[in-house]
Amino acid sequence: MIAFGPIPSRRLGKSLGINNIASHKICSYSCVYCQIGITRNKSITRMAFYEPDFLFSEVEKHLLKLGDGNAPDYLTFVTNGEPTLDINLGKEIRMLKRLGLPVAVITNSSLLYDPRVREELTEADWVSVKVDAVDKELWKKINQPLSSSDFEEMLRGLEMFSSSYTGSLHTETMLLKGYNDSIPPLKQTASWIATLNPEMAYLSVPTRPPALKEVKPAASAFLAKAWNIFRDLGIQTELLTGFEGTGTGITGNAYEDILNITAVHPLREDTMKELLRKNKADENVVHALIKQGLIKATHYKGKTYYIRSYHCK
Prior knowledge:
- It contains 10 helices and 11 strands.
- The chain is of the alpha/beta class.
- The chain has 2 domains: 3-240, Alpha-Beta Barrel (TIM Barrel); 254-308, Arc Repressor Mutant, subunit A (Orthogonal Bundle).
- It has an 8-stranded mixed β-sheet.
- Helix 2 links the parallel strand 3 (74-77) and strand 4 (103-107).
- The radius of gyration is 19 Å and the shape is globular.
């Protein structure tokens, strides 16, 4: 379950996802809004998950299965955890670029204090770094990092990476009601992001079921204020608040497509129906996956979503 999609991305067009974490979710954070759920295995220790040759082969095979019109715009490391925990990430990026497609990495920034991680990420064509807050207490409240994580060290790593990276750098800030939806901390975050000189700063809100049910998006009026605060500092800024659409890529195997996508990306009911239609399958596949305990249905903002169901020990 390494490659999935491509799926429509608000940032990357058609994005073929690469899940390089070969297990249940492993992450340095347990963000309150995470669409994959609570992190039960927090870590900042890098390790090997897949052999790079195997990962490359799986992505290459997945590309060959895609039908006409499904060619991705990017190969994107977006995982059920933090992709930079993979100690082979740099080598994998270099190998994947042989396929002639740009490579993107979406990271929570927590391991950028490590010079090896920074060096490996320079291999990517497009990198998104998470900056939800630059106040330590807000960072802890929103991102719920591993207790041994060093906030100041993480920020210094981000600064060093931004100063040396020559690819397309983007930031993403999740805005949540009752967390970081007041003007003073937002101005502080915006001012700090301006020093990174990103190509684009994305301001987002939860659009899929969050890890904590009580988490709500910031109000629309605040989002407008936030956009203006960023723009007034000369930062190119875009709001990510809408649904990406139902157009997922398919391989012809609905069972595998559903499992691969839901491992890192909840499937909304209309997207699921479109995936089944294109795979010439019916809802019996979904019922079978639920019965086997492999996926489960959940509800958010009046919509049904299907997510992977992991049995925690």
